[in-house]
Design brief:
The protein is mostly helical. The chain has one domain (6-162): Four Helix Bundle (Hemerythrin (Met), subunit A) (Up-down Bundle). Helix content is 62%, strand content 0%. It has eight helices and no strands. It has helices at 6-26, 29-32, 45-66, 84-94, 100-119, 123-127, 140-147, 149-162. InterPro entries: DinB/YfiT-like, DUF1706. This is ClbS/DfsB family four-helix bundle protein. It comes from Microbacterium immunditiarum.
Length: 169
């Protein structure tokens, strides 16, 4: 069980998303393309935004297949949770040719899609791990939070660390 209602989940996802967008909007243009310090997988703001959007696409795929009676490959076809590093690197590579501007537009749209999916469900459907057999024992709300609000918080910290900004709490 998760410890939040549908409305709280929607609010948490939106608040974290808005905080991420505010951080990105606050950066001077020259910092948006700056290479991150260190050797993290995501090398710049674009990589972080691409990562978020890619995981929204994964969530949408799970959701579409699961809600039509299928059993989606979670986290992705050909990957197990123990192969998350490889999956994330492959996802990063897929978006290398897409501009930050385009990725931000895609991310805004996929965030809205995630929120629309969440809004369709009751508190119990989001919090009960048994409500959706295709979620492999995880509550749907937990998956939505991990692909939404918690991921946005991670992204703020990744950007702040990579660009050596003050903490993005």
């Amino acid at each position: 069980m998760v410890d939040f209602t549908r409305d709280e989940l929607l609010e948490r996802n939106d608040e974290e998303f808005e905080a991420l967008m505010a951080l990105i909007d606050s950066l001077p243009p020259e910092r948006l393309d700056e290479e991150f310090a260190g050797d993290a997988r995501d090398r710049n703001v674009r990589d972080v935004v691409a990562h978020l959007h890619a995981w929204h696409i994964l969530f949408e795929g799970w959701y579409a297949e699961g809600t039509t009676g299928g059993i989606p490959a979670i986290p992705a076809d050909g990957y197990s949770w123990s192969q998350l590093a490889e999956l994330n690197e492959d996802l990063r590579q897929q978006w290398q040719g897409t501009s930050l501007h385009d990725l931000l537009a895609l991310l805004k749209a996929s965030h809205q899609s995630l929120q629309a999916d969440v809004a369709l469900h009751s508190d119990s459907e989001l919090s009960d791990a048994d409500s959706h057999p295709w979620t492999q024992g995880s509550p749907l709300g937990e998956l939505a939070l991990e692909c939404g609000g918690n991921h946005y918080r991670w992204a703020r910290n990744a950007i702040a660390t990579g660009l050596r900004l003050e903490a993005a709490a």
